């Protein structure tokens, strides 16, 4: 029996924005140049506040004007903001920060770190900055982009994550100790996104370093999730990585699942991989069949398809952008003869715009997107009323504007600038909005505000930015392994908005024997030059990471098969490890889903 979600009448009408801002020359649209400068000022207010009050801690606490470590102890905001500096045109600060990171960041620390967050923020941020270094005027070493200090830092950080993948299923734990590996009592329950969000960074790392282990473990994790889908083609929210059993069976496109779908699409484009795209297309059919109602996407039971939560989550706002990402980033990557055309990819721009406009009405209602929004009731969900300055709706606006040129998308950018400055700006940066109903603030500024929110706003208002390059300009780079073309455009953003140049993946193809000979020589040379012997001694002597032999590893398909046959140790299910919203207990929603008996 089909469902019908009753939408409050007020939501069907466009609400006036909080502030009309500066109009364009014709008086009908925001002036991109005006808002570009406003966004740049926002960035430096937040960035300077971090440097003055919080560095070397991970993040700024804007209400008390100090800092704290959150996802590790990496000076995380500095890593996350690095490529944004270049996108805003600040090459001198980019160069300075590169030196600061080399001198101050150490991954040999006794810290329990999120595997997911460390990958997207630290590994992704370092890889992006490495590939952009030459454009930023950094004096790169011989062999770049196949070698370089930021690449070596990214590799070291990624190797710290590899022990998490040593499970019978090949799906990783959610947390790993950077010094000791996975703690003996670590929960085996990980969210879907925490398993399927590695292929962009890890495939890039394998291509640049020549070590296939990173891409291999990312692909195994993706494959295991694909094999774990339900008979109706959906995946749940949290899974036990030891047994492969679903712990939370809510299926949707939001928190705990979101970037898994995103990385199937972006991984397919980055690697020109039809199998990844085929996986996504199958998921997309099930998502449209079971979770989509009136251009909203609800949460359903993964085995039955029945609605479990008629809720929109702010993290879902990436979806309209994903619907056009292939056509915007690489319009020639999807020729009709291999069924990768934009229309066959997901749907069409009209569907994406309709969903985007639904989400935009929520923004207009509150001046931001609450974490959870009850669709039938048209209001926030208790204890989920906050807006931590997330970027997803702005991200979709940027992609859709590149695809359509619709001025409505610039209006969202204008409203975002005005709302964030009016509600969130404080003396020491921008504070998370704890409650959109009364605009109470929380003492945190997430690093993604500078990595994603500000970046996507700036790119929305800067149509000539080098990130939007259509291939009309490029750089020819000579490497020890031949010539390659970089900077021609088609950048793939990881889920933390760190741009990866897909052409770089073709610069460093060589035999493994050649790789280690060249890499050891390069490391020894630059170790002497920079007098950083402690760092290089460890990374050179260790060589490529080798998984231990025996059951429970991914050293061979046979070992994986034997591991799956082995009975897991019975244990109590602990608390979920993923930082996103848990779904083991249902939220008390005041809205209602009505059966359509007609």
What is the average of the pLDDT values? 83
CATH architecture of the largest domain: Alpha/alpha barrel
How many domains comprise the coordinates? 2
Reading off the top of the CATH hierarchy, the class of the largest domain is best stated as Mainly Alpha
Over the alpha carbons, how many angstroms does the gyration radius reach?
Answer: 23 Å
Shape call: globular
Low-confidence stretches: 1-26, 330-347, 511-516, 532-598
Strand content: 5-15%
Q: Which class do the helix and strand fractions yield?
A: alpha+beta
- End-to-end span in angstroms? 9 Å
The count of DSSP E runs of length 2 or more, i.e. the number of strands, is 25
User: Major sheet, described briefly?
Assistant: 3 strands, antiparallel
Describe the fold and architecture.
42% of the residues lie in helices and 12% in strands. It has 598 residues and is an alpha+beta fold. The protein folds into two domains: 37-103 and 334-468, Glycosyltransferase; 106-309 and 478-526, Glycosyltransferase. Helix 2 packs parallel to helix 17 and helix 5 (149-161) crosses helix 7 (199-209). The longest helix has 22 residues, at 32-53. The protein is globular. The model is unreliable at 1-26, 330-347, 511-516 and 532-598 (pLDDT under 50).
